[in-house]
Amino acid sequence: MNPEDCRYTREHEWVRVEGDLAVVGITDFAQEQLGDVVYVELPEQGASVTQNQPFGSIDSVKTASDLFSPISGEVVEVNGAVADDPALVNSDPYGEGWMIKVRPSDLSELDSLMSAEEYTEYTRES
């Protein structure tokens, strides 16, 4: 269920390193808890994000929540498709529903995040 090539936060974001970039989104568990996503607010390209700090927000039929960055760096790409069709977060959270791509400033921050196995156990306890 949770891809092995991602690392996970306690706030239910994931990050996957692809080359020199880090792709960020929310987990399948998070989108299930939120319900139907109706709006996603994302930062501008060129913005700086800081690990464990909000970078945007997500609204669903149930609630509104902040999005927390799993890694620090510069936003180099924003997924405009998610802004146009927020339901992509529900239908494909680890694929087309990604949110931002970041040029990481410190890859060692990944060491503080959970593996897929650890995240699966964490969500079982929630």
Could you characterize what this model shows?
The protein is of the alpha+beta class and 126 residues long. It contains 4 helices and 9 strands. It has one domain: OB fold (Dihydrolipoamide Acetyltransferase, E2P) (Beta Barrel). The strands form 2 sheets. A 6-stranded antiparallel β-sheet has the order 1-2-3-9-8-5. The protein has a 3-stranded antiparallel β-sheet with strand order 4-6-7.
Can you say what the CATH homologous superfamily is?
A: RNA polymerase II/Efflux pump adaptor protein, barrel-sandwich hybrid domain
Number of strands: 9
Number of helical segments? 4
Encode the helix/strand succession as letters: EEEHEEEEEHHEH
Furnish the topology, listing elements before pairings.
Layout: E1 7-8, E2 13-18, E3 21-26, H1 28-34, E4 37-41, E5 48-49, E6 54-60, E7 64-68, E8 73-78, H2 80-84, H3 88-91, E9 100-104, H4 116-125
Antiparallel strand pairs: 1-2, 2-3, 3-9, 4-6, 5-8, 6-7, 8-9
Summarize the structure.
With 126 residues, the protein is an alpha+beta fold. 21% of the residues lie in helices and 35% in strands. Strand 1 (7-8) and strand 2 (13-18) form a beta hairpin.
Give structural attributes.
single chain; 126 residues; alpha+beta; OB fold (Dihydrolipoamide Acetyltransferase, E2P); 6-stranded antiparallel β-sheet; 3-stranded antiparallel β-sheet; 4 helices; 9 strands
